[in-house]
């Protein structure tokens, strides 16, 4: 019974990524718990605020990862590893310089952020060195996904979480406190980035040595491969305008992925940020703990979504009927794994809270059942978003933006207690899933069937 399950590529890859994701999530939860007990409430609040800020800042990294994963999987599907290697090198260089520019802008914004978050500038400055590592890490993580090296992809998640936890414990113990936690984050990201670089290099080491002319031809083939580039070779269309048209379409696709990643980051973290803004420090810390427990459902779903994105992207490129089947399987797996978790959270919330955060946060237990349902709905919505991205359908952006905006408006209007924010998150998550499902039946499914030759 188990062997046939493991013979299915999607199930096997999902199991590998899920195992790594669960173990990494366990380490991240251990990090949150240990830091909550080693640091004072005020210091722990600072750490939570900076980590929430980090998610927003590195939102483009998810767009970069998806973009690289999609194109590497396309090239790998055609066995064109030389072009994939040269293309990845070119993208890595661009992302590195972009991250340096973003680092400089962050330094300029440190005084303003320090005042807004009521945090000393030093932790923010130490945290800023994580930005280049986070962006480069995304490049290599996306390449690992595209090459279907899911074992390495899972291990790098575990390695990063383990290093962050162990180093943070050491740095806090010796008295570095919040700057020490930020230093642990930067060092762990740098180490994982180096591991991914060496892994990608070994995976592409079989590419034969080529001359500079051959590499130039490989780079040129990236731009001339698609049919629309043939406009460059016609006398009726000036090359400069054709190049501009290609670049516009390419940046339009990248902008879609960026906006999707930004919206996912906002809707997954804006509740914690707004709670920090509206609540007293103690109450904001309690809501952050509630959010950390409930969002384990999103971490679980991310394993299936990661595999689904690669499979759907590759199947869609080949106009295969497997596109819809992979998406349906992902929704089924997410539901099957999430429902038992929701059941436990609903019938034993006190035990769950004590296990994760101890008796100090027992007040959040009554809110856990409703919040877990909201996170389950949100995880399904994120799966829909990645499905639309994989089939290159941009129709999801408006309903997704509407759902994120609804959550901001509801929390801004109703924030007198934790229950108010939990209900606001539930309503916005319900609206978002309903809007994306409706969008799927209006646009997504029709397009998938049309391109698969069913209609």
Automatic annotation (TrEMBL):
Q: How does it sit in the membrane?
A: Multi-pass membrane protein
According to its UniProt record, where is this protein located? Cell membrane
Q: Which residues form a coiled coil?
A: none
Tell me the keywords, alphabetical order. Cell membrane, Membrane, Transmembrane, Transmembrane helix
Example GO CC term: the record gives: plasma membrane
Q: Does the keyword Cytoplasm apply?
A: no
Superkingdom per UniProt: Bacteria
Under the heading InterPro entries, the entry gives: Poly_Biosynth_Transport
Transmembrane parts of this sequence: 12-35, 47-69, 95-118, 124-143, 155-174, 180-197, 253-275, 287-312, 333-357, 369-389, 396-415, 421-442
Does the record's keyword annotation contain Oxidoreductase?
A: no
PANTHER family found in the cross-reference section: POLYSACCHARIDE BIOSYNTHESIS PROTEIN (PTHR30250:SF28), PST FAMILY PREDICTED COLANIC ACID TRANSPORTER (PTHR30250)
Q: What is this protein called?
A: Uncharacterized protein
């Amino acid at each position: 019974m188990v062997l046939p399950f493991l013979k299915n590529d999607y199930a096997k890859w999902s199991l590998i990524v899920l195992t790594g994701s669960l173990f990494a999530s366990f380490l991240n939860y251990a990090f949150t718990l240990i830091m909550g007990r080693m640091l004072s409430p005020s210091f722990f609040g600072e750490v939570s605020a900076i980590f929430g800020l980090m998610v927003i800042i590195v939102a483009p990294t998810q767009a970069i990862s998806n973009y690289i994963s999609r194109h590497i999987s396309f090239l790998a599907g055609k066995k064109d590893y030389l072009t994939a290697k040269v293309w990845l090198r070119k993208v890595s260089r661009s992302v590195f310089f972009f991250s340096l520019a973003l680092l400089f802008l962050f330094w300029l914004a440190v005084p303003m952020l320090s005042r807004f978050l009521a945090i000393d500038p030093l932790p923010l400055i130490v945290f800023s060195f994580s930005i280049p590592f986070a962006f480069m890490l995304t490049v290599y993580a996306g390449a690992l996904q595209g090459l279907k090296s899911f074992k390495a992809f899972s291990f790098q998640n575990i390695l990063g979480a383990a290093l962050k936890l162990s180093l943070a414990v050491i740095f806090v113990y010796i008295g570095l406190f919040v700057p020490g936690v930020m230093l642990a984050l930067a060092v762990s990201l740098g180490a994982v980035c180096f591991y991914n670089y060496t892994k990608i290099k070994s995976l592409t080491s079989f590419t034969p040595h080529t001359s500079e002319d051959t590499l130039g031809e490989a780079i040129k083939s990236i731009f001339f491969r698609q049919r629309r580039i043939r406009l460059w070779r016609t006398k009726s269309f000036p090359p400069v305008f054709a190049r501009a048209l290609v670049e516009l379409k390419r940046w339009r696709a990248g902008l879609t992925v960026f906006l999707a990643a930004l919206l996912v980051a906002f809707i997954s973290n804006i509740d914690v940020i707004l709670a920090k803004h509206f609540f007293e420090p103690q109450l904001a810390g309690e809501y952050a703990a509630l959010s950390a427990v409930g969002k384990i459902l999103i971490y679980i779903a991310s394993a299936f979504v990661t595999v689904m994105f690669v499979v759907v992207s590759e199947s869609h490129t080949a106009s295969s009927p497997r596109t819809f089947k992979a998406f349906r399987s992902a929704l089924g797996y997410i539901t099957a794994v999430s429902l038992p978790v929701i059941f436990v959270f609903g019938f034993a919330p006190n035990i769950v809270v004590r296990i994760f955060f101890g008796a100090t946060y027992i007040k959040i237990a009554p809110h856990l059942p409703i919040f877990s349902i909201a996170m389950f709905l949100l995880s399904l919505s994120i799966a829909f978003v990645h499905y639309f991205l994989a089939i290159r359908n941009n129709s999801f952006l408006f309903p997704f933006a509407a759902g994120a905006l609804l959550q901001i408006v509801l929390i801004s209007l109703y924030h007198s207690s934790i229950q108010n924010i939990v209900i606001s998150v539930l309503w916005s998550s319900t609206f978002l899933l309903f809007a994306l499902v409706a969008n799927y039946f209006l646009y997504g499914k029709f397009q998938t069937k049309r391109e698969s030759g069913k209609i």
